[in-house]
User: What shape does this take?
Amino acid sequence: MKLFIDTADVAQIREAWSWGILDGATTNPSHVAKTGRQPADVYREICDIVDGPISLEAVSLTAAEIVKEGRELARLHHNVVIKVPIMKEGLKAVKMLAAEGFTTNVTVNFSPLQALLAAKAGATYISPFVGRLDAVGHDGMELVRQIKAIYENYGFPTQIITAAVRHPQHVLQAALAGSHVATMGFDVLEQLYLHPLTDAVMDLFLKDWAKISAR
Ligand code: E4P
Assistant: This one.
């Protein structure tokens, strides 16, 4: 399963990229707003760091405008994936962008039927927001499993990006469900390294090694 970082914080992206386990990045309007910077500046920096798919979100509301915005975003770098919200105009735009050869990430996905429509429109990726479903009492990961089943039933090539990931269990469950990608904040990515037993055993090994050196 590929791992993407979900942020517009370039320092975090640079650090995570240096670990050698990152495959791509996703951003959204809220992430960019948090940086207090101009989107184009942030996007250019991310494209300089990440050698993999980078989802940049279109914020227009009509298909024609989304397509225009998408073309402009894609001009920034060949790694750019145009992120399009799942709505009627968004789906029309995805169809047109796909026909022009652009890659798209259909976002803000909360139902399997939305995901079916995204795949029919020719989306490269679908992003189910699992953490936000969990937060309102649903089982977010069940949505990933349902999308996976539908896509496999009909051979859709659209890849699933498990999104709105809140903790390492989401990442594990996404991997077990066969999600192609999980995108997560820096905090979750960092937690994937951690295990208390690793720390305890490393501590023991280093203490024993110090005894040898002291001989
Ligand atoms: C994914 O592409 C989205 O940017 C992200 O996962 C949204 O999640 P959140 O706003 O619920 O954290």
